[in-house]
Design brief:
heterodimer, A: 570 residues, alpha/beta, five-stranded mixed β-sheet, elongated, disordered N terminus, B: 536 residues, seven-stranded mixed β-sheet, 18 helices
């Protein structure tokens, strides 16, 4: 490292001539480990300096306390040498040799976004005086090395999020995988006592521990205005989340405006015009997310949780019986009618084209059998199929047919754990979403992975559940891989999701309830498993929440204290 | 015979018609929160048009145009009554609308004064064709009546405004209906405080208890002792309340009929004071040497009393209210015990090793200081628990205990003849999953064993929002609509509002009203508002 600290005055005049990548052996080894660990595909990386990362965790935490990075990078080093950044001179540019250029709108937008985050709060400066700081960082150069920079692609499970950059020269700076790297870069910039933006000489090698780092928002129990969804995608990016699990419909309302079945929202939304997501809305959410490296996985939960579907689609739900006559109420999707499967075929055909992601979440949780049991037609069907009195067989029958339908759309699927528990035949790439606290989720994770399925964890991360005090600590202490299983089993854990169910949450309280509590999940899913010191986490998270507040996000406080710039929204 | 049958049929038809109308309008009936003491509404309704709607003073009213409180209130409530008006242009000229006037009559003036203990908040409201008459003893009652009227007006699906024929006779059950904000554990920007005052007025709260300083920070900028905030605030420039900030808060509160009750809590909870006032706190000892840490205020020095006297002289002139809150809670004796000078003082005063006597000695002195400044003191219950001699007019505030302990404490304090405030069941900073507003709603402040006279000494209660986990980011949604539950308990008749189930749909509606008014009130349960919150 030291060999690369150039004399400030020399560096000022001398731009680094090239970016011949030379990764130290050590760094490479780590890279390879990351690669194998996560089963990642293409790896984009470059470097402008030698790596000599800090292995000492304590030292890493201490340094990180000073710069307050969240989530903590896998490897980084920083020194007291600081450079100033001037709003009138600093630029984020494409490095020579980068395969991405100004035509990459994702990058151009990210450049502008992070420039604003870094300098946005500073007062408009007058005519810049001609003066030269001792050391100034003039440029952040972004180098993309892959032959296909994937500017217009959607992020996928396999997208490599590793990034690396270093502040070595006063004018040179290189970033790979930009959205996340820019976030880290912006967190490194701090205001000194004179209000000047500074950044210390730093070198970072970073990659996520888990590839699925999600947030679930529920837009059925309460409708969430588009603005709230977009704002939370923005905060997700600040926390390096990469999956927005959109629990878009449920019993309470059906706000998704389907082109094929417009009656679903016309009849099933809280209001057919003011409380719906039009195709344009959905598109804008997906694009906004894509710009931030976030996948959008839609959940259309069946056969339970479908009361609102029934309002706009006759004969879809099972009529419940009271004695020998229909009671007027309805239960889960009616699994015995062919019309049900015709409907699902058309519906999921639309869904699979609206939502670009390779996966769809099919739900499958909490199916109440009492209505099915009451219905004589269903009873007859059970008999015909030889299911006896085991209604979970009927559920499996439904799910099986649904999975076949969805498979034909070439999408992979995620399901809640019940589908696995009920022994439905599943494709090998099905992802099992563990959400129950009882039986213990660790046991469930062990069972699911023993069966060879990929799994993700949500049980301990139901952030809609609130209590008095610093509950982020319990959230933080969870480790998705702490269950009894072989290393192979552990590898099947692809990550987790923080869930914010909507019973008691809408636009009025969503953001402060989610942040910074979800940030605790973010670090658990991104950083090394050994990053678990609560004290260090507290001091970094406190600063990180002030970062978010400064960016206009009403992230609630951890405890007594203050931010330099308090929330002024209201 | 035929005629009789005909009449019976008419009757039946009328009845059915009435049923239909009631059914159709049921969501609007009793649309006032908190529930008025007496309200009768009929299904007869009147169309209101903002362009031919007026608020005016009755001829016999003591308050007339130029009355600062009501002039501003007319303007404010016009906007609250017609939330769409800003967007609506006058294209409906062709429609024939009956003009409608809300005529306000106040029996006593006092337009430029401050609401205080004993302010009369009762009012009568009669809504009939073309006119509504609001009669109140004071301008403060008129404000409550305006609020009720604004809640009676509703919009149908075509966004037309309606008000039903209504009679209201209303007055508060308790004269003290407070809300505490803590601006020490987190600094709350003035805007947060002002919008809280707005929401308080919507729920007819009438006391803003400003727990302005505490251990973590001292944001009050004192003109006598500027170092207190210079050194004790989180930041001496950005995290303080200047004198003009405080005046702004008081003025904003006054216009809404809300008293501002400042709390300067001592002798405990004063760590931040010590930063700007040397020798004020007790130096703690470790063995024979000072440990470098500090405990409560030092009660053995006369300089302490001089300082408090000067500070309260300032405070009582800045804050107009007849009452001042002196705190007096949670005094930790360990530091006093460790300090040899305090020990010597104890010996000299003959307190033995009973440190409650020392605290008592201190509180008595402070109570004398505020009494000399003609202020009535409010203190936390600890002061009653420890001390025998406190002035009769001192108000005790209950903040802790199980329901049984609270009932016992209510009995003891009122038996001793003190007035008492209840806040223990309304610590809304404590959160849990689900509909915890139900617990806040079912509190019975006068349910303890005691005489009628004792019951009358319960003058009200307070919602407390302590600041450990609350700042401007989450204050509003954590406070509202949970505080509304306490508001109804403190204003309305307990028998008429005993059912949580009946309150639920009303509160659900009211929270949508709050959201419509820009207050970030959180939902009670799943569902929706016609106009969702549009901020972040």
């Amino acid at each position: 490292m030291t060999s690369l600290i150039h004399d400030a005055s020399a560096a000022l005049t001398e731009r680094p001539s090239g970016h011949t990548s030379q990764l130290s052996e050590q760094g490479k080894a780590v890279r390879m480990r990351a690669l194998t660990l996560l089963g990642l595909g293409t790896l984009f990386l470059t470097t402008s300096c030698k790596d000599s990362h800090i292995d000492n965790l304590e030292e890493r935490s201490r340094l990180s306390d000073e710069v307050s990075l969240w989530p903590l990078p896998q490897q980084f080093q920083t020194s007291p040498v600081a450079f100033k950044l001037s709003a009138s001179r600093f630029k984020i540019v494409h490095a020579p040799g980068s395969t991405a250029g100004p035509s990459c709108s994702l990058l151009q937008n990210a450049f502008r976004r992070y420039f604003k985050y870094i300098f946005g709060y500073v007062n408009e400066q007058g005519q810049p005086r001609s003066r030269v700081f001792d050391s100034e960082l003039r440029e952040l150069q972004v180098l993309i090395t892959s032959t296909d920079p994937e500017c217009d692609a959607y992020p996928s499970l396999k997208t490599d999020e590793s990034c690396k950059f270093a502040v070595v020269f006063l004018t040179a700076f290189v970033v790979v995988f930009v959205v996340l790297g820019l976030e880290t870069f912006s967190q490194l910039v701090y205001e000194d006592d004179y209000g000047v933006n500074n950044i210390n000489k730093t070198s970072i090698l970073d990659y996520p521990r888990f590839s699925h780092r999600g947030i679930l928002l529920d837009t059925s129990r309460h409708y969430l205005p588009l603005k709230v969804i977009l704002a939370n995608l923005e905060v997700m990016a600040m926390n390096k989340f990469n999956v927005f699990h959109w629990h878009i419909v449920d019993d309470s309302s059906f706000p998704f405006l389907s082109r094929t079945f417009p009656n679903l929202s016309q009849q099933g939304a809280y209001h057919p015009y003011t409380h719906v997501y039009t195709p344009v809305d959905v598109k804008s959410v997906i694009e906004f997310a894509r710009m931030r490296g976030i996948r959008v996985i839609a959940e259309f939960d069946t056969p339970g949780h479908t009361q609102s579907w029934g309002k706009g689609q006759t004969d879809l739900l099972t009529p419940c019986y009271s004695g020998s006559s229909p009671s007027g109420t309805f239960g889960p999707v009616n699994p015995i009618l062919n019309s049900t499967y015709d409907f699902m075929t058309s519906f999921f055909k639309e869904i699979s084209s609206v939502f670009a992601d390779a996966y769809i979440h099919l739900g499958g949780d909490e199916v109440d059998f009492s209505c099915w049991k009451s219905n004589p037609d269903i009873q007859k069907f059970m008999e015909q199929q030889g299911f006896g009195q085991d209604y979970s067989k009927l559920e499996s029958y439904y799910i099986q047919r649904l999975l076949d339908i969805v498979s034909s759309t070439k999408k992979g699927y995620m399901v809640w754990q019940e589908v696995f528990d009920n022994e439905v035949k599943l494709k090998g790439d099905t992802q099992i979403h563990v959400w129950k606290m009882n039986p213990q989720y660790q046991d469930e994770m062990a069972r699911v992975t023993a069966a060879g399925f990929h799994t993700l964890l949500s049980s301990p991360w139901y952030l809609n559940r609130i209590s008095y005090g610093q509950d982020w600590q319990d959230i933080y202490r969870v480790d998705p891989q702490s269950f009894n299983g072989t290393p192979e089993q552990k590898k099947l854990v692809i990550g987790g999701e923080a869930c914010l169910w909507g019973e008691y949450v809408d636009a009025t309280n969503l953001t402060p309830r989610l942040w910074p509590r979800a940030s605790a999940v973010a670090e658990r899913l991104w950083s090394d498993e050994n990053v678990k010191d609560i004290g260090s986490a507290y001091s970094r998270l406190e600063k990180h929440r002030c970062h978010m507040v400064r960016r206009g996000i009403p992230a609630e406080p951890l405890f007594v204290g203050h931010c330099g710039h308090e929330y002024s929204g209201l | 015979m035929a005629l009789k049958m005909f009449q019976a049929q008419i009757k039946l038809l009328r009845f059915l018609f009435l049923l239909i109308v009631i059914y159709g309008e049921v969501e609007h009936v009793y649309g006032v929160w908190p529930m008025p003491q007496q309200i009768t509404q009929s299904t007869e309704r009147y169309l209101l048009n903002p362009r031919v709607f007026a608020l005016s003073y009755a001829n016999d009213s003591m308050a007339q145009s130029g009355c600062s409180v009501l002039d501003v209130a007319f303007k404010r409530y016009f906007k609250l009554i017609f939330p769409d008006f800003a967007h609506g242009t006058g294209r409906d000229k062709s429609l024939r609308f009956e003009p409608f006037t809300l005529v306000v009559s106040v029996r006593t003036g006092g337009c430029e004064g401050y609401p205080d203990e004993g302010s009369n908040e009762s009012y009568n409201l009669t809504v009939s064709a073309r006119q509504a008459a609001l009669r109140a003893e004071s301008v403060w009652g008129a404000l409550r009546g305006l609020e009720s009227f604004s809640q009676l007006v509703y919009q149908d699906d075509s966004s037309a405004y309606f008000v039903n024929k209504t009679e209201i006779e209303d007055y508060p059950r308790f004269q003290f209906r407070g809300l505490l904000l803590d601006t020490s554990r987190h600094y709350l920007p003035v805007n947060s405080i002002l919008s809280t005052l707005d929401a308080m007025a919507y729920s007819k709260f009438n006391v803003f208890h400003w727990h302005i300083v505490d251990d973590p920070s001292f944001p009050y900028q004192s003109s006598t002792y500027p170092d207190l905030s210079n050194k004790g605030a989180f930041h001496p420039m950005t995290h303080i309340y200047t004198q003009s900030d405080v005046r702004r808060v008081i003025a904003h509160a006054r216009l809404r009929g809300i008293r501002v009750l400042p709390e300067f809590d001592s002798p405990g909870h004063t760590l931040s004071w010590g930063k700007g006032q040397p020798d004020f706190l007790t130096p703690c000892y470790k063995g024979d040497v000072p440990s470098g840490s500090f405990g409560p205020l030092n009660p053995t020095l006369s300089s302490s009393y001089q300082f408090m006297s000067d500070l309260f002289k300032e405070v009582t002139s800045v804050f107009h209210d007849s009452h001042v809150h002196l705190g007096g809670d949670e005094v930790d004796f360990t530091c006093w015990k460790s300090n040899p000078k305090v020990q010597a003082f104890m010996a000299k005063m003959g307190f033995g090793s009973d440190y409650t006597k020392l605290e008592s000695y201190y509180m008595e002195n402070i109570l004398n200081i505020t009494a000399a400044l003609n202020k009535i003191s409010i203190v936390w219950q600890d002061v009653f628990d420890y001390h025998e001699h406190i002035p009769k007019d001192t108000v005790l505030e209950i903040w802790r205990g199980t329901p049984a302990e609270i009932r016992a404490e209510l009995g003891r304090i009122t038996l001793a003849g003190h007035r008492v405030l209840l806040s223990a069941p309304w610590y809304l900073n404590h959160i849990s999953y689900g509909q915890d507003w139900r617990n806040a709603y079912t509190v019975q402040p006068q349910n303890f064993s005691g005489t009628e006279q004792q019951k009358e000494l319960v003058i009200g209660g307070e919602v407390c929002m302590w600041g450990e986990y609350v700042d401007a980011t989450n204050l509003v949604s954590r406070l509202w609509p949970r505080a509304c539950a306490a508001a109804e308990r403190l204003w309305s008749n307990e028998k008429k509002t005993s059912s949580v189930e009946r309150a639920f749909p009303r509160l659900k509606d009211f929270r949508c009203t709050l959201v419509r008014r820009g207050i970030q009130a959180e939902p009670l349960f799943f569902g929706h508002c016609k106009h969702e919150y549009s901020g972040l």
